[in-house]
Amino acid sequence: MSVTLKPGDKAPPFNGISEKGESISLAAFTGKKVVVYFYPKDNTPTCTEEACNLRDNYQRLLKAGYTVLGISTDSVKKHQNFIKKFNLPFSLISDEDHHICDLYGVWDEKKLFGRKYMGILRTTFVINEKGEIEKIIEKVESKKHTEQLL
Questions:
Q1: CA 137/CA 37 separation, integer angstroms
Q2: Beta partners for 133?
Q3: Residue 34 in contact with residue 112, Cβ under 8 Å?
């Protein structure tokens, strides 16, 4: 599949379950700028680096007017543990059936050591106040992710 959305497109609406077990919809953020970042797995080195970079620069992102939402196929419980362990100040949405990932075109075939499998392509979408995609970052630099956003 891979990302077919492009800047200027309307961001696909979604509903997901946060680490608190609450429903979060993209529609709730109309009128706000939102960073929606898709990542493969909680507690893995690169995903942890990315989340911690966003955490460490969270005030800068807030000052720039952004709300941050992370999405992976991990369970609500795994998200709770990840947030607690690394003191993450933003919500993580559980997309266990990869429905949201499919909407955004980030659920695709990956290769590791010659083995093929399906998984999340690390991708970030910046969505403007009108619900349009302003920017798509497909080559995420986990240690410099905030700089890529700002």
A1: 9
A2: 127
A3: no
* Cβ neighbours of 139 (radius 10 Å): 7
Cβ(93)–Cβ(24) below 8 Å: yes
Alpha-carbon torsion, ordered 7, 8, 9, 14, to 10 deg: 80
Tens of pLDDT, residue by residue over 34-80, are 999 999 999 999 999 999 999 999 999 999 999 999 999 999 999 99
What are residue 94's phi and psi, to 5 degrees? -90, 125
The residue to which tokens 């690394």 are assigned: 86
- The encoded tokens of residue 5 equal 């959305």
Domains of the chain: 15-149 (3.40.30.10)
Residue burial 128-138, b: 16+ Cβ < 10 Å; e: rest:
beebebeebbe
Q: Quick one: tokens of 119?
A: 């998984």
Active site residues: 47
